[in-house]
Design brief:
Distance between the termini: 15 Å
Strand order of the largest sheet: 1-2
Number of strands: 2
Largest sheet: 2 strands, antiparallel
Shape: globular
Order of helices and strands: HEHHHHEH
Length: about 120
């Protein structure tokens, strides 16, 4: 149940990010694109992001954590590339640094009521 809620929250966060951030458009059928992109983004965040954080641990410490924004942008680019080239749906991004930041903000706000520990 928690996995489905996180997947839906990521899809809604992508939708909100497309509405808020200028220059981002959806390629393909809208809700199909959002759900598939949320699934791909979740897989990339689960598999690739920890490896990137481990490899760039020194840079993250040196920049006091600001390099994590670069990792977020890279994972968003990779997920968008996978969704566009392999699945023919995805999010076209023109202003790359803004979208992962808005996506993280939306996800944190939407997950807060559902992801409390009991």
């Amino acid at each position: 149940m928690k996995l489905i809620m996180r997947w839906l929250i990521t899809a809604v966060s992508l939708y909100v990010a497309v509405l808020i951030v200028p220059g981002i458009s959806v390629d393909g059928t809208a809700w199909v694109a959002f759900t598939i992109m949320a699934l791909v983004l979740g897989l990339v965040n689960a598999l690739v992001r920890p490896v990137l954080k481990l490899l760039s641990c020194g840079v993250i410490i040196l920049t006091l954590g600001l390099f994590v924004f670069v990792i977020n942008a890279a994972t968003f680019m990779l997920a968008s590339w996978i969704a566009q080239n392999w699945l023919n749906v995805g999010i076209l991004r023109l202003r790359l640094p803004r979208c992962p930041a808005w996506l993280n903000c939306c996800q944190c706000r939407l997950r807060h009521p559902f992801c409390h520990s009991d």
